[in-house]
Amino acid sequence: MPVFRLPEEPLFPPVAFAEPNGLLAVGGDLTPRRLLAAYRNGIFPWYSPGEPLLWWSPHPRMVLKPEWLHIPRSLRKTLRQGRFHVTLDRAFPRVIAGCAAVRRETGTWITSEMEAAYGDLHRLGHAHSAEAWSVTRPGMLVGGVYGVAIGGCFFGESMFHLEPEASKCAFAVLMEHLRQRGFSLVDCQMNTHHLARFGAREVPRTRFMADLDLALSVPIPPGPWAREVSPAPSDLLQPAHSPPPVS
After folding, report:
1. What does the alpha-carbon distance between residue 41 and residue 55 come to, in Å, rounded to a whole number?
2. How far apart are CA 151 and CA 118, in angstroms?
3. DSSP annotation of 180
């Protein structure tokens, strides 16, 4: 199948035309209009410095629904210990910079242009972060995760940690926040063992697109999230259920 070159308008070809590796289109820009249109259509940007802007829609797709969430026993212990204080939208630029710095070790896809673009989305109330702060070293950001929220879907982008379990705690608290706000879907994009331990699973692209349509219909408006979160919501400390079977 051909890889499409995008026009100036924020339009995308149907995701069914993606290459087997998920590559769908090349070109365009990283304006908020383009990025939001991409996410609404199950597409995300992913490219390295020196490459053209590439757009992807992989098959299968890794997703996590709030009701699937599995908190491993070791993480529940860390949450109970209160080693980290988790906040939301308190330090978005520092979180995305931390993700970019960690990924530079293997070749980052979070370029300076990407940092600026998602910063614009954050200021518009579409991109959000969860931050893990050290309790013993006040003001020390030791982990975090960021992504894009549209309707009832959260599109996870990246996470980083400077201390063990920090990003996992941030992600767990973020998931509880999404559940409480009525989100029905978290797009994890690619399969990783780390996400699978939380209960994420691969689904066919057609199922992902159907679930995405339902999630986008949930009337959750954009806007800043609360900055302070209780260190460990009680629901996260309950004994974890077994991860859901993969269908």
Report:
1. 11
2. 17
3. H
In the structure encoding, which two tokens stand for residue 90, read together? 């308190």
> Is the distance from CB of 26 to CB of 38 less than 8 angstroms?
no
Residues 167, 74 share a domain: yes
- pTM for the model stands at 0.91
**CATH number, domain at 105?**
3.40.630.70
The chain-wide mean pLDDT, for the chain, equals 89
pLDDT digits (tens, 9 = 90+) for 202-241: 999 999 999 999 999 999 999 999 766 654 555 555 544 4
Bridge partners, 148 (sequence order): 127, 155
The alpha carbon of residue 246 and the mean position of all alpha carbons in its chain are separated, in whole angstroms, by 21
DSSP 56-94: E--SSEEEE-GGG----HHHHHHHHHT-EEEEESSSHHH
- How many C-beta atoms surround the C-beta of residue 223 within 10 A? 11
